[in-house]
Amino acid sequence: MMExxxxxxxxxxxxxxxxSSSKIDSxxxxxxxxxxxxxxxxxxxxxxxxxxxxxxxxxxDTIIEHGGKIKGIMPKFMNxxxxxxxxxxxxxxxxxxxxxKAKFLVNIxxxxxxxxxxxxxxxxxxxxxxxxxxxxxxxxxxxxxxxYYDSLRQMLQNCVSENFMHxxxxxxxxxxxxxxxxxxxxxxxxxxxxxxxxxxxxx
Length: 203
Ligand code: AMP
Known about the structure:
Elements: E1 12-17, H1 26-41, E2 44-48, H2 54-65, E3 70-75, H3 76-80, E4 90-94, H4 97-104, E5 110-113, H5 118-132, E6 140-143, H6 150-161, E7 173-176, H7 182-187
């Protein structure tokens, strides 16, 4: 095991949403590995979907390999079909997908979204909607490896330009291109609070 010197004692807990697919370009795995190493270096604890495949698997494998902390949250039915990562010892099983999504956001300091499919998009968009209502106030950082999320960024921009959302809502998330930019973006995000409910609707 390659030993990593941990540079930060401050405890941060971050939720990561990412792909279950393994049939994706190797560059997505490389970016996930780099980010996972940054998390361990900074002593950041991770909460994720508990999977063993795709970017979820890469994230967990790398964090475990380097001695970091990771917790999986998964509905029971996924565990029953053996989707859970066998090396993740801290595991919470939920009754439903909805309960799982709610638990992802308890006592965390931010959300990071890596490339993924409908599951990842659903998790990200629900978190953005909760933040818009002031029910979730922590930073949301989206890792745009290879420009994968350019079309999502454009769609969110369209929501604002067509007045479906307020211009201030653009401050709810940060897109970054490289894994090294993720933790600085989490630390430098615009402060958000429950008062967001006051401009949630564009009247
Ligand atoms: P996606 O981005 O569509 O791959 O979705 C990732 C999310 O899909 C996870 O948080 C899970 O809700 C679910 N998921 C789909 N396949 C798996 C799997 N093999 N293991 C664990 N979770 C999975």
